[in-house]
Write a structure and sequence with these properties.
This protein is mainly α. The chain is built from 40 helices and 4 strands. Strands 1-2 form a two-stranded parallel ribbon. A two-stranded antiparallel ribbon has the order 3-4. A hairpin with a 2-residue loop joins strand 3 (257-262) and strand 4.
């Protein structure tokens, strides 16, 4: 059958390469081979001879690509020596095979294939490596791969979640790519289901090939999901510990299981070596609750890595300036993009000068204009453009402003500024397709310097991240000294942790180009904080503060000191200084409130002030502050209820919007000796299922980092990040600890 399958594969190649006559001739040869009894030719000598004739006729040397080589060789137990002889012929057949486990056929010294194959072990791919490999495959595929390239740019969280659930197994890479290419609109769970369908035949055969006792042991290990020791497998399976140990050793030797260390025992623990095999087993054979747990985990990981949430969190941290103090809505559009970027400030000032020069002809000020009749009559395209700017940005008369811009373009269709300003207006109105067309025209008619970035920011709002990145790079190519473009590109890259190195380089380039630019400094500080490089982050923020007119660096510094270093008094001073600049700043007020709670500075009489601040937050933030207040007042049941309620909210974004408050509550519960009670309550209420990585990280925070080894790799990746956040103040106090 082996050589007949080779002939069939050759026939498929003939058909795919447009050689139907050759395919028909080969089919006739195969039909003649099938006329004799198979028992008369057990080693397939005639089929091999036919295959060799075809190779000579073609003048080609055959290359056989054999997946699941271990299964193939096991099925050819009686023909292995004859197969080896054929493979050893000079100029003969070349075999490239793949196997999920070690090849038993290569282990026996007296076996045909002992020390025959050159073996390369493929280690699991890191998340960034997986994304880059998929991107490379998409690029090589040309037009069919464009959808995957866009997906990788717009939703790397989906790929990162799949990486955590599949363990980065290189064997799943091609399957994963093909699924993404055929359907980019799925989600983590649907991707998993389709992958599982693809591998079911292989995994089912692997289970059925095991001896009965081995199958029982595999079942116990797979359903445990977390690493287990022999005694735990024995208890779950009902087999004697000695029998279990022998089967574990055999399964480990066969490459199905792997040994790992756990914190609870000095003995070796075991888990499935191929993580996707474990996922398949859970989904196909696990009890209902276990399957539900996997679904909860996939949802958690997707939310944990969503680029939009991470991007919103970064903007919320560093762009907390209140625009309400600006009269009459001046510079509304620029403020909606980036109020404190120096280049935008310069551009707005230039436009303002043009507007005021236009008004000077009538001898009026903006404050004096109450009716359209008070405005001077525009005559040229430039005047109509300035007229539109005044209506749009100073007076907020959107319909009249749009009409003015379009009148300017009727007078001069090739004027770049009216196209840009019309694009700004349309973007404000969320008429994104029309805005995009206007920006493209502005670029065409000489305003590439600004319109490239405007267009990129527009596409960013519509989540077209791959195109956004391309536009920023286009703007940089035309003007390598554009600090704004470097800053925006760096911020875009910040959404994907696997590209933080690129993001850091872009931020540093922006800082080098504009020494007064504080925005890239603050955003770079965020990146360094989440990378554990606290000293560098603090230095950047303190450098930014003297020249930071918005004083957002004070909030960022307070955040670093409070949540990453545990320096409460220093953080309090930074937030207090920020409130002196802007008494209405919610970020500063909320964090000062949290600090007051930690220091027991809030009296029951202050509940009205507490409620005033809490009322400005959504349910998740308000709930966390109430949980913290109950905790410091000694009402543990209420604190647990409030905290669990927040984690049970349907939006699931608490770790991105309120990461700091979550960390503060968990640390304070541990400091007051309530950590284990909180952990038990979360487990009892099912939070350990819906937020498994968070609970695993807290368990490790309470009982030692080694506890992270006790959970499966799929959970451990996210748990490690949360643990590092929780543990940051302790590491800051003890520099010798793991960075």
């Amino acid at each position: 059958m082996f050589w007949l399958n080779c002939l069939d594969a050759l026939g498929d190649w003939f058909e795919q390469s447009g050689q139907p006559a050759q395919a028909a001739a080969l089919d006739r040869d195969v039909a003649r081979l099938g006329q004799g009894p198979a028992a008369a030719d057990p080693e397939g000598t005639e089929a091999l001879a036919a295959f060799q004739r075809w190779m000579r006729q073609l003048g080609r040397r055959p290359l056989l690509l054999l997946d699941n080589l271990d299964i193939i060789l096991n099925g050819l137990a009686k023909q292995q020596w004859s197969l080896r002889r054929e493979l050893q012929r000079p100029g003969g057949i070349v075999v490239v095979g793949a196997s999920a486990g070690w090849l038993e056929a290569t282990e026996e010294k007296n076996a045909a294939f002992y020390d025959f194959f050159q073996v390369t072990v493929l280690e699991p791919l890191a998340a960034g490596e997986l994304i880059r490999c998929l991107g490379r495959l998409a690029a090589l595929r040309g037009e069919p791969g464009r959808a995957v390239q866009a997906l990788l740019a717009t939703d790397p969280g989906r790929i990162r979640a799949l990486h955590d659930l599949t363990g980065g197994n290189p064997r799943t890479l091609t399957l994963l790519y093909l699924l993404l290419e055929t359907d980019t609109g799925g989600d983590v769970l649907s991707d998993l289901e389709r992958l599982l369908d693809q591998v079911s035949v292989l995994y089912k055969a692997r289970v059925e090939d095991l001896a009965p006792q081995s199958r029982v042991v595999l079942d116990a290990v797979a359903l445990a999901w977390n690493p287990v020791i022999a005694a735990e497998v024995a208890a779950a399976s009902g087999l004697a510990t000695g029998v279990v140990s022998a089967q574990l050793t055999r399964l480990e030797r066969d490459g199905i299981l792997q040994k790992v260390s756990v914190s609870r025992s000095n003995r070796d623990a075991y888990q499935l070596a191929e993580r996707f095999f474990n996922i398949w087993y859970l989904m196909r054979h696990g009890p209902r609750r276990q399957r539900a747990r996997l679904r909860w985990l996939s949802a958690f990981l997707r939310g944990f890595y969503t680029p939009a949430q991470l991007r919103d969190r970064a903007l919320g941290l560093f762009n907390s300036d209140d625009a309400g103090g600006l009269s009459r809505g001046q510079y509304l559009l620029a403020l909606s993009d980036a109020v404190d970027e120096p280049a935008w400030r310069r551009a707005l000032a230039l436009e303002a000068e043009r507007v005021f020069a236009y008004l000077a002809r009538s001898g009026k000020r903006v404050e004096d204009i109450g009716d359209l009749s008070d405005l001077p009559r525009p005559e040229t395209a430039e005047d109509w453009d300035l007229h539109g700017l005044l209506l749009h940005r100073q007076l907020g008369r959107i319909e009249e402003a749009e009409a003015a811009y379009r009148t300017a373009l009727e007078l001069d269709p090739k004027a770049g500024w009216p196209w840009k300003h019309l694009g700004d207006l349309l973007r404000d109105q969320e008429r994104f397709d029309e805005a995009e067309s206007a920006y493209v025209s502005a670029i065409k008619f000489g305003l590439a310097r600004w319109a490239w970035i405007d267009l990129a920011r527009l596409l960013l709002r519509t989540d077209r991240l791959a195109e956004t990145e391309a536009l920023y790079r286009r703007a940089i190519a035309e003007n390598p000294d554009d600090a704004d473009a470097w800053t925006d590109l760096a911020h875009l890259l910040l959404a994907d942790p696997s590209r933080w190195g690129e993001s850091e380089a872009a931020f540093r380039r922006a800082v080098a180009l504009d020494a007064a630019a504080n925005v890239p400094r603050r955003r770079l500080a965020l990146l360094l904080m989440n990378s554990g490089r606290l000293d560098e982050a603090e230095s950047l923020l303190r450098t930014a503060m003297p020249n930071d007119s918005s004083a957002s660096a004070l909030c960022a510094l307070g955040y670093l000191l409070l949540y990453f270093r545990g320096q409460v008094e220093e953080a309090k001073a930074a937030y207090a200084k920020r409130r002196e600049i802007d008494p209405e700043d919610l970020v500063a007020a909320s964090n000062l409130l949290a600090i007051a709670l930690l220091r027991d500075d809030i009296e029951p009489a202050d509940d009205a002030a507490f409620d005033a601040i809490v009322g400005r937050h959504p349910d998740s933030g308000a709930g966390l502050l109430r949980a913290l207040r109950a905790l410091v007042r000694g009402d543990l049941p209420m604190a647990i209820d409030a905290f669990a309620a927040v984690l049970s909210l349907p939006d699931g974004d608490v770790l991105t919007l309120y990461q700091g408050f979550v960390l503060l509550f968990l640390r304070e519960a541990a400091r007051r000796g309530h950590g284990d009670a909180l952990l038990a309550a979360l487990t009892e209420r099912g939070i350990a299922d819906t937020h498994w990585p968070l609970v695993a990280a807290y368990d490790a925070y309470l009982h030692g980092e080694a506890r992270l080894a006790d959970v499966n790799p799929e959970v451990r990746t996210a748990a490690r990040r949360i643990y590092d956040w929780l543990d940051a103040p302790r590491r800051s106090e003890s520099p010798t600890q793991r960075p």
